[in-house]
Design brief:
Order of helices and strands: EHEHEHEHEHHEHHEHEHHH
GO molecular function: lyase activity; magnesium ion binding
Number of helices: 12
Number of strands: 8
Organism: Oharaeibacter diazotrophicus
Keywords: Lyase, Magnesium, Metal-binding
Cofactor: Mg(2+)
CATH architecture of the largest domain: Alpha-Beta Barrel
Helix content: 40-55%
Strand order of the largest sheet: 7-6-5-4-3-2-1-8
CATH topology of the largest domain: TIM Barrel
CATH superfamily of the largest domain: Phosphoenolpyruvate-binding domains
Radius of gyration: 19 Å
Distance between the termini: 26 Å
Protein name: Citrate lyase subunit beta/citryl-CoA lyase
Structural class: alpha/beta
Number of domains: 2
Largest sheet: 8 strands, parallel
């Protein structure tokens, strides 16, 4: 199982609102996150669960990356058993803290009646989750990426959802993901109500500087901003193209080097690949 390709913008939509799901389609987001709406006892959650199969079927053949956010806790296991045969790309697990739970969910996916390539994305929202980030990232090959919810994390710690308090734990999530060969989604701050203002753009820039590859968006208007910020720059694209050229032209028996004479090792090749993947318009 490979890491999920770098997603710059993942727009969250309630699975209970197929009209909003349709609105998101073809509007520039790299992926759509179908939300099962939190508390398992709520009417909205029950509506989202009931609507999910039809919504996933509606998205079939749309060439869109589809993720589904499960309900936190033990309910996630029940939901995954119920929906494991759905044709989606990844399951997002809120309040991820326990590697054993991730492994249990991965075993459910592997045991599906229909062969599935669906992966898992642990969503880190607590101090325990941040401390366990490296373990969560590498606990199972089904883990495709890690995600960081700065707003929920700030609430867990009782601090303001600002970069001064979230940059360090956010980068711990990035480090945990990268150590396992995965990408990380998130921001070192919170933007309420689907705001796509300069604050959101500033947080995206800060997040990219910390190593995040993209962000979970709460509104469609945020997707173009995230796509632009997390897109590879022209200089980065030229560098990655140069690496590809040097690899193609290397002489047998000689270690490849870049245009500045530096050795091209596996980490450089991986970085060049990420740059190329993030170069989408």
């Amino acid at each position: 199982m490979n890491a999920i390709e770098p997603l710059r913008s993942v727009v969250a939509v309630s699975a209970a609102r197929p009209d909003l799901v349709e609105k998101v389609m073809g509007r520039g987001a790299d992926a759509i996150l179908l939300d099962l709406e939190g508390e398992a006892t709520s009417d909205l959650h029950r509506a989202a669960v009931a609507a999910l199969p039809d919504v996933v079927q509606m998205l079939k053949g749309r060439e869109t990356v589809v993720l589904v956010r499960l309900t936190p806790g033990l309910e996630a296991t029940n939901e995954l058993r119920m929906f494991t045969d759905l044709a989606i790309d990844a399951w997002v697990l809120p309040r991820a803290e326990d590697p054993q739970q991730i492994q249990t969910l991965a075993s459910i996916v592997r045991a599906a009646r229909r062969p599935s390539d669906a992966g898992l994305v642990p969503l880190i929202q607590t101090a325990r989750g941040v401390v366990a980030a490296a373990t969560l990232g590498g606990c199972d090959m089904r883990v495709m990426a890690l995600a960081f919810d700065g707003d929920a994390f700030a609430e867990d710690l009782g601090i303001a959802p600002e970069p001064v308090g979230l940059a360090m734990p956010g980068q711990q999530v990035v480090l945990g993901a990268r150590a396992a060969g995965r990408c990380a989604l998130g921001l070192p701050g919170a933007v309420r109500g689907g705001d796509a203002s300069e604050r959101f753009r500033s947080l995206c820039i800060h997040g990219r500087a910390l190593g995040f590859s993209g962000v979970l968006c709460s509104a469609l208007a945020q997707a173009p901003v995230a796509n632009k910020v997390f897109r590879s720059s022209e200089d980065e694209i030229a560098w990655a193209d140069g690496i590809d050229e040097q690899l193609a032209a290397r002489v047998s028996g000689h270690s490849p080097r870049d245009r500045d004479g530096r050795l091209i090792d596996r980490s450089v090749v991986d970085r060049a690949r990420l740059v190329s993947l993030r170069a989408r318009s």
